[in-house]
Amino acid sequence: MTAARALAQWAHDHRADPDDLALAGRALADTVAVALAARAHPLQPITAPLPDAARWAAMAHVLDFDDLHIESTTHISVVTVPAVLATGGDARAYLAGAGVMARLGAMLGWDHYASGWHATCTAGAPAAAIAAGVALGLGPEQLATAMALAVPAAGGVQEAFGTHSKSLQVGFAADAGVRAARLAQAGATADPRALDAWLTRVGGTPATEIPAAPAVPGGLAIKMYPCCYAMQRPIAALREIRDKADGELTGVTVTTPAGTVHPLLHDRPATGLEGKFSMPYAVATALLDAYPGFDSFTDEAVNRPEAQRLIGRVTVDRRPGETTTLLDGEVALRLDFADGTALHSALALPPGSPQRPPTDDELRAKFAACGPDVPDLLAGITWEGAAELMRTAFPATTGRTDKES
Fold this sequence. Notes:
The chain has helices at residues 3-13, 18-36, 43-47, 52-61, 76-86, 91-114, 119-122, 124-135, 140-150, 164-186, 193-201, 232-239, 272-275, 279-288, 299-302, 305-311, 360-369, 374-378, 383-393; strands at 249-257, 314-319, 331-337, 342-347. The chain is an alpha+beta fold. Strands 2-1-3-4 form a four-stranded mixed sheet, with helices on one face. Helix 1 packs antiparallel against helix 6, helix 1 (3-13) crosses helix 9 (140-150) and helix 2 crosses helix 6 (91-114). It is globular and about 75 Å long.
């Protein structure tokens, strides 16, 4: 028995319960919504020549508004939903791929992410192979083979954060999974032990005892702001006190477990994409903007003189200690004013986290922010309908689609 065979067997045998199906429906709607929000993004024409899964995954991730699995530090749906849609799958295929991605992420562990790997891509390519493979009707041994065939594409590094490369490498992972599944379906061979060997070489621990349920252990976090998940908590904490911030602000101190801000690479952001990975800019947009939405993460917004002044007044106190997820401990903020007064705020769980799930009103507001037509487009959305919607919104320019391959 190998990890690949154990995961493949779990994916093949899993049968969804109502909670699983509710999660799958929410993941489908959320992923399609944030992709539609990027219809006018400069990356759209760049991705147009790519196959369906790659194109859709990249566009669903470019705004950094897609869901996150906290325990594995992976954006599960942005990889698996496009892989399923590109191969004609449904909720069962999504849950198989999402469940394998969560479990692979657990095998990789926090140290894998903390060492600089982009776990969405490393866990994502084999998981996308499962999602596509289940959609294509592969059996357990073919699914294990597909995972092994996806291993060469199981890469991605955090140096991509703040550039187009971050979303593109997510697209490459989704596409690699679809390609691997189709190759396995056609009869290509591979040794499933390749997945176990790869896991060990990138710092993970292969496992053959696979938790049976739920499909996605821990659930999924839904983002309320279009930026890195490590910024969700400080933004939410500051928004709780921003109306009380009256006076000349002389400094802001953010105290946080060091590991929980690991992906925030840009202390002096100069572009909108860099601003999505910047703790100082999280402070600036939370204080300056009524809602830190898409308009807050443009080049112009990041370079506002008042934003740059605030960025220069932020001190981040990164407390050492063991970290296992981006929501370990809590974030604490102190705002100091020229008159000697100070404001304090602290938060452990931001809105949208699995333990603090978004309300129906919050989800509707998020979808509306993705475009005035998005709530209507998502009403009663099915997996087949979502695929057609994505093909219409993001047409291919190569003359070939995944559906025709």
